[in-house]
Amino acid sequence: MNRINELVFILNRYKVRQVEVITNAPGPMDKTSKFRDFYQLLCEGEISTEQEAAAWLGEPVESKKFKRFLAGFKNRLYNTVLFIDVNLPEFTDAQRAYYICKQRVAVMNTLRGRGTILSPLEIAQKILPVAQKFEFYDVALEAIEVIKSYYAYHLGDEKKLEAYCRLRREYQDIYQAEALAREAFQRVQVLSVNSVSEGHVVSDSAKKLLCELEPYRGRVKSYFFLLSYGLLRVYERMSVNDWEATISCCREALDELGPKSSLSGATKNAFLHQVALSQLMLGDYAQAMDTAMQSIENVEDGAYNWFKSMEILLNIQLHEGSYEKSWEVFKKAHRHKQFANMSDAFREPWHIYHAYLALLSALKKLPLSPREAGDLKKFRLGKFLNEVPIFSKDKRGLNIPILAVQSLFLLHERNYDRFEDHLESLRKYRSRHLNEENEHFRTDCFIRMLQLLVKGDFERKKVEPQIAFLLERMRNTPLSLANQTHEIEVVPYERQWQWVLEMLD
C-alpha cells in the first residue's frame, strides 16, 4: 500500500479540478461547452477557416477574445491527445508500447519532481523491459536514471548501481549512434524536400555521412540505427539512379530489420516504395505493380504512407500505358477525405497527374463515363499552374512535366500562337538549365523536338524527318539509362511524342 498511499497523497495535494476529454460526448450531468461544440463542427466540416470560426463565435478574427478561444481550444486538444485509444487495431504493438511508455515516463517524471520515490521506481522497473524488447533507448535511459538514483540514494547498493551504470553507458552509445544516423538521413532528405537536387550532390553528401557512421556499423544493430542507416544507403544509390543496387540495398535493409519487434508496415514501405520505383525505372512494370500493391496492403487507407503507395502505383500504370487503371487509382486517392489535409508540396504531384489524365481524356485515350469526361473537360491550364507553385519554381526537376503538359494542351487546342510564345519560355529554360551532358538528356531532346514543330509548319510530313535523329537518340537512351528521376517523365517521352504527331494529323 505504500505506493498507493504515495500516489493518493500527491493527487490529493494537487487536485485535478476537471479533466475534459473533448472527443467524448458529455455525460447527463455535464454542460455542453463551447469547445466541444466547436470540435463537433470541425469534425463535420462545417468550419474549416479562421474566418468561419470567428463568425461562429461572433467575434472578429483579430479580436483578443477569439485568439484566447483558439488558444484554449488548442490546449484542450493537447490534453485530449493523452487519452487516444492506442488499443485500436490500427496501432502496431510497437506503436502501442511506445505511446504507453512515453505516457508512463511523463507520470514518472512528474511524480519524481514532486519528491515521491516508490511510484517512479515502480514505473521505471515496469517500462524498462518493454523498452528493451522494442529497443526504445530514449525510454530505457530515463527508466535507468530513476533506478540508479534509487540504488544510489536510498538503498546504497553499490553492486546494483554499477550494473545499471554499465547498462546506461551501453544504451547511451546505441542512442547516440541512432541520433547520428537519424541526423545523417535528415541532412540528405533536406536537399530534396522542395526541389529535386542534382544527384551527385545528394550522393556525395550521403557517402560522406555513411563514412562518419562506419564506426558504429558493426557493433550497433538496433532497429532505429539500422532503419536510418539503411535508408541513407538506399538514397545514396537512388540519387545516381543505380536501380539494381537500390533494390539490393532495400532487400538487405528489410532482411536486417525483419526480426525486429518494432518493424511496422510503414517502415517496410519506406523500402518497398524504392524497390517499386527502381523496378519502374528498369521497365519491369509487372514486378513494380506487385511491389506497389504489397506496400498498399501494409498500411491503413488514408494514411500518409497509403497515399504514397497509391502515387507510386499511379506512376507505374501511367508509364505502362494502363490509363484506365491509373484513373481509378487517381480517383480513389484524390477523393479520399484525408487528401485535403495533406500539405501543398504533397498534393502538387497529384495536380500534375490530374493534368495528364485530363489530356488523355481530351485525346480520347482514356475511356470515361460521360459525367467523368465532362468533369475532366473543366480542366483549365491557368488554374493548374496556380496549383503547382513549388514545383513551378524548381529549375531542375518537377517543373519539367508542368512545362511538357502545358505544351501538349496548347497543341491539342491548336493554339499555335500561345504555343510559340510558350516555346520561347522553353528555349530559355533549355539554354539555362539543360544540355546534352546533364541528367536531363531525354528532356533536352524532347524540348528540341517541340521547337522543331514551328519550323515544320505544324505539318507531320515536314516535322517527322526533321526530328528523326533526336527521336533516335532518345530511344537509344531509355529511361533506365537516363540520369533522371521517375517523376520527370510522367509518361515516357516517346509516347508523348506519338500524341503530338497524332495531333498534327
List descriptors:
505 residues; mainly alpha
How many separate helices? 24
User: Over all CA atoms, what is the radius of gyration?
Assistant: 29 Å
Shape: globular
Largest sheet: none
Structural category? mainly alpha
Topology, number of strands: 0
Order of helices and strands: HHHHHHHHHHHHHHHHHHHHHHHH
Multimerization status: single chain
In whole angstroms, how far apart are the ends? 90 Å
Report the β-strand fraction as a percent range: under 5%
Helix content: over 70%
Question: What ranges have pLDDT less than 50 throughout 5 or more consecutive residues?
Answer: none
Average pLDDT confidence is: 88
What do you see in this structure?
The protein has 505 residues and is mainly α. 71% of the residues lie in helices and 0% in strands. Helix 20 runs antiparallel to helix 21 and helix 21 runs antiparallel to helix 22. 33% of the residues are buried. The mean pLDDT is 88.
Question: What does the secondary structure layout of this molecule look like, with pairings?
Answer:
Elements: H1 2-13, H2 34-43, H3 50-57, H4 64-81, H5 93-113, H6 118-134, H7 137-155, H8 158-189, H9 199-217, H10 223-239, H11 243-257, H12 265-281, H13 285-297, H14 304-320, H15 323-334, H16 344-362, H17 370-377, H18 381-386, H19 389-392, H20 399-412, H21 416-433, H22 441-455, H23 460-475, H24 493-504
Can you give me a brief rundown of this structure?
The protein is mainly alpha-helical and 505 residues long. The protein contains 24 helices and no strands.
